[in-house]
Amino acid sequence: MAKKPSLTFSCTDCGASFNKWSGRCDGCGEWNTIQQDQGISSGPPSKSLGPKRGAAMVLTDLATQEAPPPRSHSGIAEFDRVLGGGLVPASAILVGGDPGIGKSTLLLQAAAHFAQAGLKTIYVSGEEASAQVRMRAQRLGLAQSPVKLAAETNLRDILTTLDAERPQLAIIDSIQTMWADNVDSAPGSVSQVRAASHELTAFAKRTGTSVILVGHVTKEGQIAGPRVVEHMVDTVLYFEGERGHQFRILRSVKNRFGPADEIGVFEMTGRGLAEVTNPSALFLSERGQPSPGSVVFAGIEGTRPVLVELQALVAPSPHSQARRTVVGWDSGRLAMILAVLEARCGIPFAGLDVYLNVAGGMKISEPAADLAVAAAILSAREDVALPAETVVFGEISLSGALRPASQTENRLKEAQKLGFTAAITPSGGKTVGTSGIKLNTMADLTGFVGEVFGAG
Ligand code: TYD
Ligand code: MG
User: Fold this and answer.
1) 305 and 428 together in one domain
2) Alpha helix locations (H) across 44-96?
3) Which residues contact 220 (CB under 8 A, 6 or more apart)?
4) What is the Cα 439 distance to its own chain's centre?
5) Tens digits of per-residue pLDDT, 369-385?
6) How far is 113 from 133, CA to CA, in rounded Å?
7) Which of 143, 317, 418, 437 could disulfide-pair with 353, CB 3.0 to 4.6 Å?
8) Which domain does 419 fall in, by range?
9) In terms of domains, do 155 and 206 share one?
10) pLDDT band with cut points at 50, 70 and 90 for residue 223
11) In 10 A of CB 172, how many CB atoms?
């Protein structure tokens, strides 16, 4: 008896497959995205391609000389750098961020600058009426810029217009408002967002127009709609920031045309976003006198050194289970550092609440922040401030050994530029010794605790 073919189901959002249907995808958590796959999942295809010959592919050498893509510059240096050094023709870019963070403001400013630099630029708003966008342009002092503007959500009309106009840059604000009439669901739904992104990305590739898609981010920090949009586009940028802080960070999380993890720093002012050319000075601007729990970390973001202040608070816990709260860093990594401090240095944290905050709403992900985090926590726990004008950086291994961070010299140079005179770092970091900063190096965490806090 022939085996009954098994049915499979997959998520139209993240692509995960399952052997039964469910209302919510276990893979990505989206609702109503599970569909039964067409055809039989296992076994060879029922019909082979057959004997008809296809066309021969053109094979090339790896050494084929290709000129680097020509790039256009907006003149907003922070924006151009995050793109990898300017805008590449025919590229598709997704700019994601929370509602109200400043995406429309940023892209209207970028559009105006690209247009002033000679690029034919079209800005399509699906969220605001043209009059509203014009008012914003006026407020930003950009009303005279030759950007072409439309308020439209019908994808077919947008593509028809773009095809006729053939701009060099088209900005679609936002992808969640776009509506493709061949897809049978509401704007903002997974299938609409995916269809619109696909059409617009294909348009970019076909015509050479660079397309920037604006996307809102859900509370969970994902671009609302299909994850596959992130796979479709060449570049994914996130625009981040904290409400209540005026600065914003544009971060590349994926870039086929440049380094990922590059950041651009902006400040939201009454006249739009202003570039911050010296982020370290901004991040340290609220720092007071040296105090327990406060440590300056010399970090690297993308291609550039950035100094940030880490703040820790350690206090006896009133809860049966002590709290570990982190803002701006990885909570798993914090747990690891506490475990290493306990196991390798014999410093207990049981019954103590530990809070860690990266000042100013900055987010850091470098392992090189380990030692600065440990320093901030110990400084808070012992109620002892670190020596003044000192930066800290280095990675901590599970054994308690300290590992040098990359780009030691660049970190030290930035620290010196901002008036720091000493650095606590793992031994073995590559320095050429030109930076004029007093180095206090150590090989392991126990040595660090002994040296800095006189215990261990
Ligand atoms: P917006 O660009 O509309 O955000 P998004 O497109 O990400 O939803 O920005 C909204 C906020 O920015 C709004 O709260 C007002 C503020 N803003 C300024 O502070 N200064 C300005 O010049 C502009 C245009 C906006
Ligand atoms: Mg907007």
Assistant:
1) yes
2) 77-82
3) 29
4) 32
5) 999 999 999 999 999 99
6) 16
7) 317
8) 282-453
9) yes
10) low
11) 26
Quickly count: other Cβ atoms within 10 Å of residue 151's Cβ: 16
**304/413 Cα distance (integer angstroms):** 11
Is the minimum distance from the CB of 256 to ligand 1 under 6 angstroms? no
Pairing of strands 395-396, 402-403: antiparallel
Please choose, from the candidates 288, 442, 277, 308, the residue with its C-alpha nearest in 3D space to the C-alpha of residue 372. Answer: 308
- Whose tokens are 């002994």? That residue is 450
Q: At what angle do helices 370-382 and 445-453 cross, to 10 degrees?
A: 40
Residue 141 Cβ < 6 Å to ligand 1? no
Would you say residue 47 lies in a domain?
no
Q: How far is the CA of 356 from the centre of ligand 2 (A)?
A: 32
The 3-state DSSP class for residue 200 equals: helix
Same domain, yes or no: 390 and 331: yes
Of 268, 269, 271, 273, the one to substitute when testing ligand 1's pocket (max ligand atoms within 8 A of C-beta) is 268
Q: E strand or H helix at 155, and its extent?
A: helix 155-165
Q: How many CB atoms neighbour CB 353 within 10 A?
A: 17
Both tokens assigned to 272: 């739009």
- Whether the predicted model's global pTM rises above the 0.90 cut: no
Secondary structure of residue 276 in the 3-state scheme: coil
Q: What is the pLDDT of residue 40?
A: 44
Q: If you take atom 22 of ligand 1, which residue's CA is the nearest one?
A: 272
- pLDDT digits over 134-163, tens only? 999 999 999 999 999 999 999 999 999 999
Q: Are residues 300 and 262 in the same domain?
A: no
Of 238, 261, 277, the position where a domain reaches its end is 277
CATH number of the domain that 362 lies in? 3.30.230.10
Helix, strand, coil share of the chain (percent; to 5): 25, 25, 45
Determine if the peptide bond prior to 191 is cis (ω within 30°). no
Give the separation between CA 335 and CA 276, rounded to whole angstroms: 33
Q: Is residue 148 part of a domain?
A: yes
Total domains in the chain come to 3
pLDDT at residue 203 tops 90: yes
Which pair of tokens denotes residue 19?
Answer: 């052997």
